[in-house]
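ok trying again, last paste got cut off:
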Amino acid sequence: MANWINPPSSITTSVNVTHRVRSAYGPTTSHPVSDDPATNAIVAASGNRFVSFINEGPDEVLVKLNGTASITDYNLIIPAGYNDSKFELADGENLSLICAAGKTATVRTAIAQETEI
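nice, full thing came through this time. structure:
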């Protein structure tokens, strides 16, 4: 809790300050991805989440935020070898994955919840 030092007379209450941080990542899930059908890697859930995302290849992956990915409908291309833990998903968002025709990949994900301290 934070308190005013020499507060103006109009302020008579204190202010609660919270910080949102990432919790520890949960277990890793492996997702085989091909050109049909799309793989729902991260399902919609309540609360903000952080995602660790590793594309083990051999091919690139097409990613769709909030919907089902297709080879003509995607938001992002993730190359083979990509490894990042900075994906952030807001409350209710999901990720769907697909590869281009004749391509395959294996993607590993892990999820951390947003918590308040």
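cool. The radius of gyration is 20 Å. The first strand starts at residue 20 and ends at 22.
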